[in-house]
Every structure is written in C-alpha cells, then in structure tokens.
C-alpha cells in the first residue's frame, strides 16, 4: 500500500469533488455524448436541484442519472468516497473493509457493503472479460491476519497490454479494467495464456 500512496493521493486530487466524479461517470457512461437509455435520443434537459444531476430525455421524458443502474445508485455515500474505494479495492494489494472505512471515513458497515458491491461487479466483469496478452499473477491473502482461518486466498492478475500500459494509473476506468481480483485456484490455468 505504501508504494501506491502517491498514486492514490493524485487520484483523490483528480476526483476531489462530486462534480469531478459525476463528470467522469458521464464520460464513462456516454463517451459519445448523452444517449437516452430508453429511446437513444441525444438531447436532454438538465436538472441540478438534486444531489445528483438529473438528465431528462427531450423525446420520451425518461429521467436518468450517471449512477442509475450502477452499484452507487441509492447510496447516500458521496461519489468521492466511492471513487476512493474503487481505487483502493482495485489496487493490486487490495484492502480490508476496516482499513477502507478508516481511509474513506465511513462506518465499517458502509465500507463492508461498498467493498462487497465493488468486488461483486469486478468478479462479474471478469467472467465476461478474461485476461489476455501478457498476464502476471501474484498469490496473496486478504482478511484479518491474526486469525489464519479468517484469511482468504487470492490471486491478483493483471494483463499488460500495449493499450493498458498507456492508461495513467490515476484513471478510474483504466485501473478497473487492467486489474483483476479473483478467488484462488479454480481458473488459474485458464487465465495464463499458452505460448503460441
Ligand atoms: Zn428517451
């Protein structure tokens, strides 16, 4: 974790406000500009009276937000803390829920829930997007180190592709897509490409 601190600080600086996070989510969600999730119309009315900007389709009037349908929907935790959690959980060394709660300053229960949701979507994404190219896998453990049976084995794998190397470490989407966390053993052989 120590070696990742400068990158984490720089990430926090980049996403230090709700607006910065919402803008990042907007561009991740609609890289070619707004598209209504119902009718694909590209024009909208913007409502800023709520905590989260609301986008209302000018054609079918359906309202949506940048977090609609994501693990952040319905959460009262600020986006800045969600982003920090995403960075820390997706980092190669991972993080425990109790440490996460201290760093992002939420209760242990909230940190545990956030971590659980993030790990769940990362695992789901891994199922449909297996690592390819040059893959490096490290064996690690997570969990409370004082009790051996509380520790869970982990394989942390990363794909080092030309495009992934060009993504700055502070880029949220880049760090999410180039780092994978997965339970130990079952798929190790499938995740290391054979030499052609
Ligand atoms: Zn629409």
Automatic annotation (TrEMBL):
One Pfam family here: Zn_ribbon_IS1595
Highest taxon listed in the record's lineage: Bacteria
Sequence segments annotated as region (Disordered): 171-196
Comp. bias (Polar residues): 186-196
InterPro entries: Transposase_Zn_ribbon
Domain Transposase zinc-ribbon positions: 17-63
Name the UniProt record assigns to this protein: Transposase zinc-ribbon domain-containing protein
Upper taxonomic lineage: Bacteria, Bacillati, Bacillota, Bacilli, Bacillales
């Amino acid at each position: 974790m120590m070696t990742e601190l400068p990158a984490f600080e720089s990430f926090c600086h980049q996403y230090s406000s709700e607006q910065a996070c919402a803008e990042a989510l907007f561009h991740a969600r609609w890289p070619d500009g707004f598209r209504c999730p119902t009718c694909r119309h590209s024009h909208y009315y913007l409502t800023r009276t709520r905590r989260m900007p609301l986008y209302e389709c000018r054609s079918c009037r359906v309202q949506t937000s940048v977090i609609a349908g994501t693990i952040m929907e319905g959460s009262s935790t600020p986006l800045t803390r969600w982003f920090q959690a995403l960075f820390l959980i997706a980092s190669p060394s991972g993080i425990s829920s109790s440490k996460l709660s201290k760093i992002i300053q939420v209760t242990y229960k909230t940190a545990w829930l956030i971590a659980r949701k993030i790990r769940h979507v990362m695992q789901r994404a891994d199922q449909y997007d297996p690592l390819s190219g040059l893959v490096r896998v490290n064996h690690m453990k997570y969990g409370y180190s004082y009790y051996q049976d509380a520790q869970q084995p982990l394989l942390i794998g990363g794909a080092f592709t030309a495009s992934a190397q060009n993504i700055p470490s502070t880029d949220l989407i880049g760090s999410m897509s180039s780092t994978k966390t997965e339970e130990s053993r079952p798929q190790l052989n499938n995740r290391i490409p054979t030499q052609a």
